[in-house]
Amino acid sequence: MKDDVVICRCEDVTYGQIVQAIDEGLTTLEEIKRVLRCGMGPCQGRTCSRLIARIIAEKTGRSMDEIGFPLDRPPVRPVEIGILAGERDEA
Ligand code: FES
C-alpha cells in the first residue's frame, strides 16, 4: 500500500503516518488513536479501526485477536437529546 493512502477519512490519517507510528513503537489501537487522532472522527472509528488493526497485525506479526478492538460506547448512533432526557419516545 502506498504511504499516501488515507486510512482514516474523518481525521485524514494516511497509511504512511500509521506505519511511522508503529515504527516508533506505538503498537496498539489506543496508542495510535491518541497520537494520530484516527478513530476520533464523526464515525468514531467504525470505518478505520479494523483497517488500522490489520496494519498493526501486518507490521508486528501479531494476530488480529491479540490486537483486539475498542469497545463501542453508546450511543452507537445519533440520538436526539430529548430522547435521552426521557421527554420523547424513540419510536
Ligand atoms: S474514518 Fe477514522 S474516525 Fe472515521
Provide a count of the helices. 5
At the first level of CATH, the class is Mainly Alpha
Classified in CATH, the superfamily is BFD-like [2Fe-2S]-binding domain
For the largest sheet, list the strands in their spatial order: 1-2
CATH architecture: Orthogonal Bundle
Task: Note the topology.
Layout lengths: L5 E3 L4 E2 H9 L5 H8 L12 H12 L3 H4 L13 H4 L7
Antiparallel strand pairs: 1-2
Helix pairs in contact: 1-3
Features:
91 residues, mainly alpha, Arc Repressor Mutant, subunit A, two-stranded antiparallel ribbon, elongated
Short description:
The chain is built from five helices and two strands; from the N terminus they run ββααααα. It is mainly α. The structure holds FE2/S2 (inorganic) cluster.
General description of the model:
41% of the residues lie in helices and 5% in strands. It is mostly helical. The chain has one domain: Arc Repressor Mutant, subunit A (Orthogonal Bundle). A two-stranded antiparallel sheet has the order 1-2.
